[in-house]
């Protein structure tokens, strides 16, 4: 079933309304959809390198707006889930407070790292809302990381074309992980100075 959904997503890339579909997929992936927007972004940029920056911008904007929905899901639904008896049985008397305290300390690093990688962004958006992490900081970090990720993919595809597609699909986690480490390292260095 997931393979069929992935193939359908690729077919959308050839549609005349592909930019709209890119926005819909990027929005939905940030809160509930299982296929990352790269499945549309990559073939669209390969087909129209002259539109690479526009497509990366659409992907970034829609992903960040979808991230706000994921944040709202976590903010309003997660607390109710943690009130269930099963949550207390599994995680102790106050599981939500423990999670929120941990996320208050490490949330920005989590957002910066996961926002760049192909690890499902919806995990970060929902967790940030559940932790009641600062919404302005969440949005700013999301804009930076999602923009960096999608513009990096667009730049690589625009510069190197089809041969880089295989590289991106096989090693995107490594490349974006190194970029994430650089960004987090930069923030840590600024904080220590």
Major sheet summary line: none
**In which range does the helix fraction lie?**
over 70%
Helix and strand element order: HHHHHHHHH
How much β-strand is present in the residues?
Answer: under 5%
What's the total helix number? Answer: 9
Principal-axes geometry comes out as elongated
Fold and architecture overview:
By secondary structure, the chain is mainly α. It has one domain. Helix content is about 80%, strand content about 0%. It has 9 helices and no strands. Helix 2 packs parallel to helix 4. The longest helix has about 30 residues. The model has no long low-confidence stretch (mean pLDDT about 80).
Walk me through the topology:
Blueprint lengths: L1 H11 L5 H12 L8 H10 L4 H31 L2 H7 L3 H22 L4 H10 L4 H26 L2 H30 L1
Helix pairs in contact: 2-4, 3-4, 3-8, 4-7, 4-8, 6-7, 6-8, 6-9, 8-9
Quick tags:
single chain; 193 residues; mainly alpha; 9 helices; 82% helix; elongated
Brief sketch in words of this structure:
The chain is an all-alpha fold and 193 residues long. The protein has nine helices and no strands.
């Amino acid at each position: 079933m997931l393979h069929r959904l992935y193939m359908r997503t690729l077919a959308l890339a050839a549609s005349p309304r592909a930019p709209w579909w890119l926005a819909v997929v990027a929005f939905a992936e940030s809160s509930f959809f299982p296929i990352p927007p790269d499945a549309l972004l990559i073939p669209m940029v390969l087909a129209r390198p002259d539109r690479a920056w526009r497509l990366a911008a659409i992907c970034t904007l829609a992903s960040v707006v979808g991230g706000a929905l994921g944040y709202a899901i976590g903010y309003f639904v997660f607390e109710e889930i943690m009130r269930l008896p099963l949550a207390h049985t599994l995680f102790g008397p106050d599981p939500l407070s423990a999670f929120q305290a941990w996320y208050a300390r490490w949330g920005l690093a989590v957002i910066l790292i996961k926002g760049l990688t192909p690890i499902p962004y919806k995990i970060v958006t929902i967790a940030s809302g559940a932790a009641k992490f600062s919404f302005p900081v969440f949005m700013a970090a999301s804009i930076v990381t999602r923009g960096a990720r999608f513009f990096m993919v667009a730049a690589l595809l625009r510069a190197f074309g089809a041969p880089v597609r295989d590289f991106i699909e096989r090693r995107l986690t490594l490349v974006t992980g190194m970029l994430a480490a650089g960004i987090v390292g930069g923030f840590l260095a600024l904080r220590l100075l």
